[in-house]
Write a structure and sequence with these properties.
There is one protein chain. By secondary structure, the chain is an alpha+beta fold. It is 59% helix and 11% strand. It has nine helices and five strands. Strands 1-5-4-2-3 form a five-stranded mixed β-sheet, sandwiched between helices. The longest helix is centred in the last third of the chain and has 23 residues, at 190-212. It is globular, with a radius of gyration of 23 Å. Mean pLDDT is 91; it is low at 1-22.
């Protein structure tokens, strides 16, 4: 009888341990969006980075994410989207979209980050932006004309709508294929965020192949 009681106690303790471990299981490092967002280039797996030039964490992420982007396979499309939460966020976002529309963003992206983060330039006034960008080889008059164009206003609306659909609350935030959202904190660090992005890209690639068979 005593042995039966001891055995029952051990089983109970074992079950309690399993339950406790299950309760303490870490949450997934990403959020799966309830309503997936269509990607910019159908047929490719999209990785989005939402950022702000005024964000020190985004600036620190640059030397980590840029080499990763350069090595992405041809079936992956990387997209940067400026987060626009008002004030300087909007000004910097409009500057980014203007430079992107002009086809020069990739040439001056690092310089703009450096100016804001290290040189402490505000770059919130379009004329201040134009003067600085002129030192980087960007045509001042063309920048100002593009900055206030109808096309850029449309891009601003699109960027805000996407941020709302992604349900972001801060930056830098990454979105894989319009389905999975995570940030550096939830991933456990900058390198871990990119490893997670790789895993989710692989997951989407496998799902696409399975659906085709």
């Amino acid at each position: 009888m005593r042995n039966l009681i001891i055995s029952a106690a051990l089983v109970a303790a074992s079950l309690f341990g399993v339950t406790a471990q299950a309760a303490e299981a870490p949450a997934a490092p990403y959020v799966e969006l309830a309503n997936p967002v269509p990607v910019a280039e159908p047929g490719k797996i999209e990785v989005v980075e939402l950022f702000w030039y005024g964000c020190p964490h985004c600036y620190a992420f640059e030397p980590v994410i840029n080499p990763w982007v350069e090595k992405l396979p041809s079936d992956v499309n990387f997209v940067r989207i400026p987060a626009m939460f008002g004030g300087p966020w909007d000004a910097h976002g409009q500057m980014f979209l203007t430079l992107e529309a002009m086809g020069v963003e990739h040439k001056v992206h690092a310089a703009v980050f450096e100016a804001i983060q290290k040189q402490h330039k505000k770059l919130t006034d379009k004329n201040e932006m134009a003067d600085f960008l002129a030192t980087q080889g960007v045509d001042k008059d063309k920048f100002l004309a593009t900055f206030d164009s109808f096309a850029i206003k449309g891009q601003i609306v699109k960027a805000r709508e996407l941020a709302k659909k992604y349900e972001i609350t801060g930056v830098p935030t990454m979105i894989v294929n319009g389905k999975y959202r995570f940030d550096i904190g939830s991933a456990g660090g900058a390198e871990q965020a990119l490893q997670l992005a790789d895993q989710l890209v692989a997951k989407e690639r496998a799902a696409t192949k399975a659906a085709a068979n």
